[in-house]
């Protein structure tokens, strides 16, 4: 059996190739892939060859947010949980379960973590931009209801945002600022709304990005490029926001966020970048809690449940879809924030059950 894959060889060198499939083993599932979203890290691999110290050092199949239809199951897979024809979201995270941090119930920090589509380690962990693939059954989460494969493929980024919200404490009735209205920022808005926040202000440099925020639960939006002083009302009296989620990792956005955060407020850092200058005096003087948030663990199953019930409707962020043979066009489109939000690649249309 053969499968097509989208393999990245270097900066803007993405090729659709064919390779043989391995045999299906015990405890494994053969998937006919359906949809896969292009993440910011995938885009960095394509545009820049990586980000920070993480570089593409050998050919890699990218893609870590995807859904697929079960085509076959291996020996030992419980047919009452996973069966042919079922739509599943695939959890790309594979902690070892044995290391120091796994034993501390901190699998996010697993010392031997394998994460699909990641160039962090060599050999790289191959990802899900392909027509067919075999994965451990434990990584397949059934999707229910009438949701589409495109929606199911949003489980991974939504899980990231649910984990970020879990770092912030109780949000019921809170005033929240979300900086950055890309896919992660918008899904954070949805997760914050689900957690009960009363006021959610979203900032970005792009009107196109901000236009999607109300549908995800924002109560106000602000273009800080055209209105650089727009946050001033929320910066009075040492700040008005209880919690800030920084999804931009931009120095100016962080400085404004510190100014708008209440004393002893919490800033959850979701976006990543290189070294930047921070307003240390504000951090200390206002006794702000600045907390990082990385990936997810149990939140993946929660994300699948919320999408399956459409308690969180992810459809407003899905802007474009391209078939696998147009993978390069998909990546180019994903790099145009003036029109694109979540760009997805679709797979194996003729193979689906």
In DSSP terms (H or I, runs of 4 or more residues), the helix count works out at 12
Principal-axis shape equals globular
The CATH architecture of the largest domain can be given as: Alpha-Beta Complex
Highest CATH level, the class of the largest domain: Alpha Beta
CATH topology of the largest domain: Quinone Oxidoreductase, Chain A, domain 1
Residue stretches low in confidence (pLDDT < 50, at least 5 long) are none
Chain-averaged pLDDT: 95
Biggest β-sheet description: 7 strands, mixed
Strand content: 25-35%
Please name the fourth-level CATH homologous superfamily of the largest domain.
Answer: Medium-chain alcohol dehydrogenases, catalytic domain
Summarize, please.
The protein has helices at residues 40-48, 100-103, 149-152, 155-166, 183-194, 207-210, 213-216, 232-235, 251-260, 280-285, 299-308, 327-334, and strands at residues 2-10, 13-20, 28-37, 50-51, 54-55, 60-61, 65-73, 87-90, 93-94, 114-115, 132-136, 140-142, 175-179, 199-204, 220-223, 241-246, 261-269, 289-292, 318-323, 342-346. The chain is α/β, with parallel strands linked by helices and 353 residues long.
């Amino acid at each position: 059996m053969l499968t097509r894959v989208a393999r990245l060889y270097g900066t803007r060198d993405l090729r659709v190739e064919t390779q043989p499939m391995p045999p299906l083993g015990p405890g494994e599932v053969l998937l006919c892939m359906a949809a896969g979203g292009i993440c910011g890290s995938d885009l960095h691999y394509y545009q820049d060859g990586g980000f920070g110290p993480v570089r593409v050092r050998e050919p890699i199949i990218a893609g870590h947010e995807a859904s697929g239809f079960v085509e076959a199951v291996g020996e030992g897979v419980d047919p009452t949980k996973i069966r042919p024809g079922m739509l599943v979201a695939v959890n790309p995270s594979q902690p070892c379960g044995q290391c120091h941090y796994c034993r501390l119930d901190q699998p996010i920090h697993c010392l031997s973590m394998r994460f699909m589509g990641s160039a962090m380690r060599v050999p790289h962990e191959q990802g899900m931009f392909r027509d067919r693939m075999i994965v451990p059954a434990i990584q397949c989460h059934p999707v229910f209801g009438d949701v589409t494969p495109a929606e199911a493929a949003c489980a991974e980024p939504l899980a990231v945002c649910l984990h970020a919200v879990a770092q912030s404490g109780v949000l019921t009735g809170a005033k929240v600022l979300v900086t950055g209205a890309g896919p992660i920022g918008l899904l954070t808005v949805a997760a914050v709304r689900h957690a009960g926040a009363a006021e959610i202000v979203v900032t970005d440099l792009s009107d196109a990005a901000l236009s999607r925020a109300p549908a995800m639960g924002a109560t106000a939006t602000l273009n800080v490029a055209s209105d650089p002083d727009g946050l001033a009302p929320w910066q009075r009296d040492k700040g008005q926001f209880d919690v800030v989620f920084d999804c931009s990792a931009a120095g100016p956005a962080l400085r404004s966020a510190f100014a708008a955060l209440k004393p002893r407020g919490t800033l959850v850092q979701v976006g990543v970048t290189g070294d930047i200058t921070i307003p240390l005096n504000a951090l200390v003087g206002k006794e702000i809690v600045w907390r990082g948030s990385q990936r997810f663990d149990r939140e993946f199953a929660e994300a699948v449940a919320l999408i399956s019930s459409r308690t969180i409707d992810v459809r407003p962020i899905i802007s474009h879809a391209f078939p696998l043979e147009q993978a390069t066009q998909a990546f180019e489109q994903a790099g145009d924030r003036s029109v694109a939000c979540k760009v997805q690649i679709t797979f194996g249309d003729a193979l689906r059950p």
